[in-house]
Amino acid sequence: MSSDILNQLKDVVLEFDIENAEAVAKKAVEAGVSPLKAAAALTGAIREVGDKFGKGEFFLPDLVCAAEVLKKALPVINSAIEKNGEKANKSLGKVIIGTVYGDVHSIGKGMVATLLYVAGFEVIDLGINVKGEDFLNAIKENNPDILAMSALLTTTAAEQKNVVEGLKKEGIRDNVKVIVGGSPINQEFADSIGADGYGATAPEGVKIAKKLLGIS
Amino acid sequence: MQKGFKRKFEPIKILSSSQIEQIHSASLQVLEEVGFRYDSDKALKLLQSNGCAVDYETKIAKIPPDLIEESIIKTPSSFMVRSRDPEKSIRLGGNTLYFMNSAGARYCDVDTGIVTMPTLEQNNEGVIVSDALDTVNVFPSYTPYFEIKGVPPVMSCPVSCAQRMRFSTKPSRGAQPTDTFIWETQMAQAVDAQLMGCVEGAAPLSLAEDACNAAFYYLDAGFPIYIASGSIMGGSHPITVAGASVSHNAELLAIVVLLQCIRPGCGIIANNFVSAMNMATGDLNFGTVAVALHQMAYNQIWHSLYKIPINNTGSAFSNSKKIDYQTAAEKLPLAMCSALSGANLIVLHGGVTGELAYNPILAVIDDDVASTIGRIVEGFDINDATLDIDTIKEVGSTGTFLSTKQTRTLWKTEDYMPRVFDKTSYQEWLAGGQKTVIEKAKERMIDILANHKPRPLADEQDREINKILSEATKYYKKKGLI
Q1: Where are the domains of chain B?
Q2: B404 to chain A nearest CA, in Å?
Q3: Please, are residues B130 and B137 in contact by the beta-carbon 8 Å criterion?
Q4: CB contact residues (below 8 A), chain B span 274-293, against chain A
């Protein structure tokens, strides 16, 4: 019975079944399945999706839909873990992500956010057109390990520099690693604004995030 | 059966009904008043018995319009070509679009454009690569190379046919010169397959003895026939598109008449291979406006009026010496015009410089080109799943369609993602070694050659092919051709 439900949890992820994700998670909790095992089934399945994406067997829509399944199912399981007085698996790190002010492009930023989530990071997505002060406030409030900023226009890339300067002014630059990305960005630009890392692609962004936090 | 691409919309029409009638009537008038030269007494006798006025001295038959009209009606609008692997058979005609491999005399070096005589191994590799490409549905004769190192010229067609039988399960067109149809028919029968027989006219207004003999031989074997009358506007055809349309139409109709007299109801696909003359050099000009318009007018007449399956060869070659921008700029517009105007078969993959050169790397690139063209003629569906207003409502003005079920389930069928075109970001391209499409196509070709294993012939079939080749060699030696 328990293994049946664990398989069902795995299946909702692998079959991208967003509609039934929450219901299956609730069913697992009601059936008394170990919430830690249930969480492991979900995260194991999303890793499988991530691996297939990396190999070119799955594509972006598969990855994003699988992540949506997890976003529906995992809160139910995590509540059960808390109720049991247990501790959920620790995330690899906390990331605040957003597209900078003046820029409304969301796809690339969303892809990085999804891949970070799938890789096991806790992700706080501030969305698009995020003002510098909003980035700074979110960092003070959430104390993340990483700040990831996206800019898709040459005209808005400079805003990434403004945020880094803001971090310095507030005296919190050393509290957080800064990653930048977007089509007009390159390593030279990242170095020039004092960012810690640059990812040319979304999967590379995840690699850089892990590297900066010393995760192999 | 290979499914090809199904055209879901009406072909483009560039002629009015009265213009079609003008070209058709003029074609009938040419065949009735000027006639057509058949270099075969056997063919002439048969035509005479069917109502043609025959002059045995000039070998010209004047064909009455009603015989032409009857012959058109007898010709089916679609027919099967059976392959040795039933899954690779094709049904030509209707609204189906297939692609045929192109060919070249010699192997073209991708870096230098220099052509060299291909070895038998290079020939076989070319066949294996095209066998692996989904959009190569059928091979013409002497494909991929007209010449093969160490093979006597008169044996190049039979040897080429034998290698296609061995290294591909896809259907082939036979050849007609120097009695090669005898050996190619025997080889097809040995592997339990059909060929598209080949009967090619010699413009203006004539059919050589070999072609007449091939017509009788291939039809006796029960094979459908591919007809053509390759010519050059300003040389063997009038310089005007309208005049060349009449001449070409008349030639192909004269061949249709002969074939329907030999075997009423036989399947025929009529090829358009008319090129323009380079008035500075006298060479063939490929990919030009006149050729595109000629093919489009032809497709409209044969598709809508005659309802006979049609092939276009205008996109088979470019005048470029290397695989480059010119190659694409000359081949693609012609192929697109053909597809949109109703062609059932388009010759495309691998042909480089005129008819002089071929390279399988270009065939790999053309696989993406053909897939793109094919998907365009398939159009798009409008139904509950593709409209899906609920998804538009759900996403509203703040969400993303990327995470919807509709995107995940339909993105592959709504578009085509080329396999070797560079779709990476600039940064990825830099990091990946700045590869060109030619380099990426070469990688795919190497992968195909390492991993694609065409279904082999049975030992007995292979022995039979060798026996037929040996008989052909003896035959040509006796004739003093080897």
Answers
A1: 7-14+73-377, 384-414
A2: 7
A3: no
A4: none
CATH topology of domain A94-212: Rossmann fold (3.40.50)
Q: B7-14+73-377 belongs to which homologous superfamily?
A: Trimethylamine methyltransferase-like (3.20.20.480)
User: Residues B146, B151, B157, CA angle at the centre, nearest 5°?
Assistant: 45
Q: Is B103:B358 a contact under the CB 8 Å cutoff?
A: yes
Confidence of residue A1 (pLDDT cuts 50, 70, 90): low
A15–B contact, CB cutoff 8 A: no
Mean pLDDT of B20-32: 98
A87 pLDDT tier (thresholds 50, 70, 90): confident
CB atoms A200 and B408 under 8 Å: no
Q: Which of residues 60-99 of A touch B (CB under 8 A)?
A: 60-62, 64-65, 67-68
**Which superfamily does CATH assign the domain made up of A2-83 to?**
Methionine synthase domain (1.10.1240.10)
**Which residues have C-beta within 8 Å of that of residue B36, sequence separation ≥ 6?**
B60, B61, B63, B205, B206, B207, B250, B251, B254
The shortest CB-CB distance from B402 to any of A16, A110, A201 is to A110
Between chains, do B403 and A186 touch, taking CB under 8 Å as contact?
no
pLDDT above 90: residue A201: no
Nearest-5° angle of CA B447, CA B6, CA B16?
Answer: 130
DSSP per residue, B198-266: EEE--SSSEE-HHHHHHHHHHHHTT--EEEE--EEETTTB-SSHHHHHHHHHHHHHHHHHHHHHHSTT-
Least CB–CB distance from B428: residue in A106, A107, A200: A200
Domain range list for chain A = 2-83, 94-212
Determine the 3-state secondary structure of B454 from DSSP. coil
With a CB cutoff of 8 Å and minimum separation 6, the contacts of B275 are B230, B231, B232, B233, B284, B285, B286, B288, B291, B314
Q: pLDDT value at position A2?
A: 67
Chain B interface mutation, best of A12, A15, A20, A60, highest count of B Cβ atoms under 10 Å: A60
- The alpha carbon of residue A61 is apart from the nearest alpha carbon of chain B, in Å, by 5
Instruction: Tell me which of B400, B402, B434 to substitute to probe the interface with A (most A C-beta atoms closer than 10 Å).
Output: B402
